[in-house]
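_Backbone structure tokens_
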Amino acid sequence: MKFRSLAVVPVLVMVTSVAQAEDVPQFPGAEQEHQWLQQFVGDWSTHSKMETGPGVPAMECKGSISSRMIGALWVVNEMKAEVAGTQMVGIQTVGYDPDKKKYVGTWVDSMLNHMWHYAGTVDATGKILTLEAEGPNFSAGGKLTKFQDIYEFKSADEIAVFSKMLGEDGKWITFMTGTAKRQKPGQ
């Protein structure tokens, strides 16, 4: 009798495993928009100029971006640069939300205590990603305003980068321009 009850245990384990496997949720796979993000993957050198105000010379900085995918759904860009004599490290995440039909993401860095939340699109050419976020306008006492980070793929190995801020007059002000040049392709 004991022998028969022990033989039933493996059958019960197998039936339970099959039943549980049917309850496993189906996770979303990568879509064309997720695949588009893979062109960021690799190591990049950067050079940028930042306008801080009328009559003030532009600040120039050099840095790097190291980009990798998390699975097939998210790109993580780790940016390092020296800004006004201070080392800055920033982490950007970008993915695609099929329900919102928008690219979404975040930005945090070592100089600000604000987490930026992105939403954006790729233009009809398939070369320009525009991410919008709300953040503090330091020239207006930290009052929140809209910002844009724009990435234009000039080639597989060069990205033009622009940052804009919405002025109080409703016009976009470009305050940062730069380039990223691929140094090492991603894996």
